[in-house]
Amino acid sequence: MNSINAEQLRNILIAASKAIVENEPLLTHIDRLTGDGDHGTGMMLGFTAVGKMLLEADPFESIVALLTQVGKVLIDTMGGASGVLFGTLFISGARQLERKNEMSPMDFAYFLSAGTAAIRRRGHAEPGDKTMLDALVPAAEALHRAASAGESFEYCLRQAAECAKQGTEATRQMRARIGRAKAYAEASIGYPDAGATSSAILISALADSLQV
Hints:
Elements: E1 4-5, H1 6-22, H2 24-34, H3 39-56, H4 63-78, H5 80-94, E2 102-103, H6 105-123, H7 133-148, H8 153-170, H9 194-210
Antiparallel strand pairs: 1-2
């Protein structure tokens, strides 16, 4: 597959939203180890709302409109820092795309890279700080490499998903330097970051959905 249209992206995001909701217990458990335990609930609320919106919405005029609306729903329903950051991922990423009805692997790479860069600026965080960036940055880089090599959409997203998982696993050995987990300092070592985990789940679900 070399491109996806707005309707295909809608279906992929519906499936990915379901995966996030199903993983609420895991995300809640992880966040309780180094945070206040509300990350899983917030993700569940946000992506439940996204799934409902996507199922009920009229056809979108463009992929940009679809992704922007997903971001707005996340900000409106998740609350807290996670809602703003995941909303930023979609809204800022969408701004890099032309208002067209098809998306290539490179378009998706631009989307993910731009959204990740916006999170980096907004959260004043860097890779290694034990945040969602530790999953998103390697995923975006892998996606760009695969897209530049002319690989299929399925392969590109699978590479991104694998690197997101590896980045998330690496957060186990990191000391949290930002966000609520910062208060746990050395005690945060040994546990994965909740935001990185949810980011990896999202990208993996997108990759899995594209291959169905």
